[in-house]
Protein: Contactin associated protein-like 5a
Amino acid sequence: MIASISDNLLPEISFENGSLIGEHNLLIPVNTEYLWLTARASTNDTAAGGWSPEISDRQPWLQVDLGERMEVTAVATQGRFNSQDWVSSYLLFYSDTGRAWKQHRQEDGGGRFVGNVNSEAVVHNKLSHSVRTRFLRFVPLDWSRSGWLGLRVEVYGCSFKSDVVSFDGGSSLLYRFNQKSMSTVKDVISLRFKSRQAEGVLLHGEGQRGDYITLELHEGKLDLHLNLDDSRLRLSSSPVAVTVGSLLDDQHWHSVLIERFNRQVNLTVDSHTQHFQTKGEGLSLDVDYELSFGGIPLPGKPGTFLRKNFQGCMENLYYNGINIIDLAKRRKPQIHSGNVTFSCSQPQLGACTFLSSSSSFLLLPGAANTTGGFSVQFQFRTWNQDGLLFSVQLNSEPQRLELQITKSRLLLTLNMKPNVKCSLGDRVNDGLWHSVSVDTRQLQITLTVDNEPASTTPLWEQLESRGNFYFGGCSSTDCLTSAPVFQGCIQLIFINSQPVDLNHVQQGILGNYNELQFDMCNIRDRCLPNLCEHGGHCSQNWSSFSCDCSGTGYSGATCHSSLYEASCEAYRLTGSSSGFYSIDPDGSGPMGSTLVYCNMTEEKVWTVLSHNNTAPVRVQGSSLHKPHIMKFNYSASAEQIQAIITRSEHCQQEVVYNCRKSRLFNTKDGSPLSWWLDQGEEKQSYWGGFLPAAQQCSCSLEGNCKDRDNFWILSFKDHLPVSQIVIGDTSRTGSEVIYHIGPLRCYGDKSIWNAASFHEESSSLLFPSLQAELSFDISFYFKTSAPSGVFLENLSIKDFIRVELSSPSVVTFSFDVGNGPAVLSVKSHPPLNDRQWHYVRVERNVKEASLQVDQLPLRFLEAPANGHRHLQLSSQLFVGRGTVSQQRGFLGCIRTLAISGVTLDLEEKAKITAGVSSGCPGYCSGSNSLCHNRGRCIEKSSGYICDCSHSAYGGPTCKQEVSVSFDRESSVTFTFLEPFSVMRNRSSQAPSVSRESSSRAREDMAFSFITSQRPAMLLTVSTFSQQYMAVILARNGTSPVWLTVDHVTHFFFDLFLLNQIDQDIHRKYTLTSNTELALIGSLTLGKVIRMEEFSEDVMHAGLKGFIGCLSSVQFNHVAPLKAALLNRGSSLVTIRGPLVQSNCGELATSPHTLQGNAQGKTHKQHGNNSQNGLALVAGVATAVVFITVCVLAVMTRLLYQQRHVQKNNSIKQKEHKHSMDTDYRIELQPHSQTV
Structure:
């Protein structure tokens, strides 16, 4: 039950507003005879009127004084009685004193409250968290279009009492224990504090054995240092701190709660909680003699403190249920109060906030100075790394003095001939208050920042100010500057040592201003909480935040999307070959990626997880009393292993067990003498050939148990992998065991082909409501012949999400998180209801929403800067139709439906749902790949065909190599239709724009060759800006890669081709951000004609050309050799010299496309020198080279320009994430540049 503060009307004196009237422009109430603080006035016959500001009021607001601090839980608003005046949205501020204000924000960070749509209806708004305050201020944002501002308000809450103590920076409270030492296994400490200082100790206690607890403000954040009997921390010079909160030096109350049980600790500041576990083995906190609050006094020296003391106020300070302030007020003997007061009368500093990035400014007249020159001092805080802080016109035109933030440092510029500049400070955009002083007296300019040494520059003449001083920016009529406007807060302004009263500016008595908020610093930390997922680093400016996903394995605006495939099976479907890959079994879930080996040489694709003990182990002298124990640590975490096993169709682990005079079981009672532990560390005594319940092995079944070599396979998935083996019977003479536990091997991916067929429009599969308040992604494949249908939908009272085929060629993603409906659509020129598989992926996070359909350009929609963030859904998730009657259900197949990395089991749900069946009919719907090497399977009425347009191969199933014989003069040049910069900038005007998939993490290139020539030019890529990349075969038999950017040539690596039979060469290279190759124009195979920009080594190879066989050349979706053979008349293909199609590629083993991120790889297959007339380099008969050039990894940054400037990221790792435009993700229509 919410109690109402307004059971009685507040007196007239309780109201104040922003209207400025009267001869002296004093702040006085307006229409106070009709000001009713009740939302029930519409039903009261005596009620009339309400508040309405003057038309001339630049910043209208209504302020309410509750008389004392109250706990406010809700507010209600109503328009003016019997009028067309109301407020449709507003902001709510609160203050203890009426001077320092703070904006109330809801849980999702939004500060806008919904108001009225007419003058009589009452609109209630419950606060997401209550506020304890005396003053409230209602600031209208929007109001009636047919009338004017009109407002009646009601405030709900209850009275609030507290015990308060004030610390002046040199005082403290000491709570002394009744005994020498206090030992506790459980602690609960709570308090509230407010301060305008960013540093200071709130709480400290320590013991002689090294235990301690310290709670302190540091850089406006709260640090908790806690040690329980950990000698390592006692010896450490910098103890580990847990940090919570930000901007806590804002002169407003903040609540703190510390809860500890043994080593488990919760630290909560306001609504942000940090859970952690203390280091060391201790379970109790042993503190000797006393706890101190407000500082750390030096023993034996009262008033002397080891660290900076807290300066501010605390209230309701409780230590394990003891009211410390109450004891101090009652002068109890266990409390020693050092110079504290029991009230909170901290001075309130009036700050102003510069809101606009283009038009905010504060103009102040200069105070007279008789000594010549002038001085300016003030404090500022901001997140922006650039902005104009202060400027003044000097007497001599056009001289001007400017102080600005440039690249996070202060830069003072005197615009004269010659210019005078000096720079000072570092990271002054860290959100903390910084003090700055500029003094031009005594024929010098002195710049001082915080406590740094001053920077002084001598002058030839005395500088004098002419006119006004501008802060934060300046009006367009008075100055022209290229510096961006300052966004942030400024306080404590002194001009010529005279303080400036900002109240006078607000009242119009002094100076002028534009786009400012007074009596508050309305800064907010957009990185608290950190909305960057998976460990992404959050950085911010005044209006937004951004995430640096480097090194996380994820990408996107909030580091939500995994760079890696979910399984080895998924990599195979992208055309990848055997090798080490990072897989992310839960996609965008919390687990992260792990490195596995994908063995794709067999019919099945095996995922191999190795452990730390791969060599055979010999065991002798073990017994049950002293057994041999071996633990196995795997390359993945237990959660990752479990996810891989669950996702796989089959898993197994091989055990080789060679024994002599050693028993597995006791022959008398059958008890095990050796056993192993499963993934849950449960004891298992069965071995290969038997079910888990049996304490036997396969030889028992065969009746031939004796000293022998045993090979067993453990395949019960619930028990895999083996975490430990115990051997206890090798103590007899001549007894021994030699065992080997193989890696965990799994094949199959049950999720990829999990499908359901929808036969009736009214049918749907029901799943639990989507739980994804801040971010989610949904991906699936579909095929249909219907013109429209809802794929899935999840509703609530207001919020919803819906993905649908809205027409034969359009997929639509619509949603509402409280900011109004938002719609993203992707249109395909070929219709999507063609009975072929199509890929859809939607993502929504607090920064943006996106929609991807096949290979079509990705559509984006940016989220409102200060809008609602939380998506709150309540109904079930409907798959196959919507819940709105006029929407058409889906008819067709859906498979691989995954939500935030979790695949929904469509097949199981379909078994119990009418009108839906498990699986999906059709030749192209199975898990067996009918078309190879990026070939696309297309359903036909009586079979299927393979579309090889995306593949470098040909033939019925895209397995036939396309090979061409070159001679010295031969070359093939493929010219792109436009500069190959597939990442397009987003328009700032459009609500949603397109860009090609930003999920690509690299460019992919693959080819094979046979030659006896060296040096030889294999391949070159040229750009429109005279940059190039070249792959040549050098004289020493290596294949170096060269990249020239901005006329600077970079040599990257060699691919050694000499005598490398059946071996993979894995290389990692780091590329700096200034090594960029952009706007690719053409690709050339063989001899290069134009070589003006080439280096000498590359030019020499280019003149030599290439003699031999090139086969199956692939560059992303382009196959240049196929283009040359099939489109000889095309304007995109230029052929010089003889070019003959041949079967020379068949001399080599069929290649596997190898794709990687920032890597070089060489695969070579067996050849027979005696059977081939060609000798490759040093006599190797056949070499098949697949190069995923590390240089191309950089192109992500060049071809896909990000919205924000990328930092100097290194592009590393062999593991890669294959892009969405591979045939697994797409199985789609030909691209306009595909040949």
User: Anything to note?
Assistant: The chain is about 5% helix and 40% strand. The first strand starts at residue 15 and ends at 17.
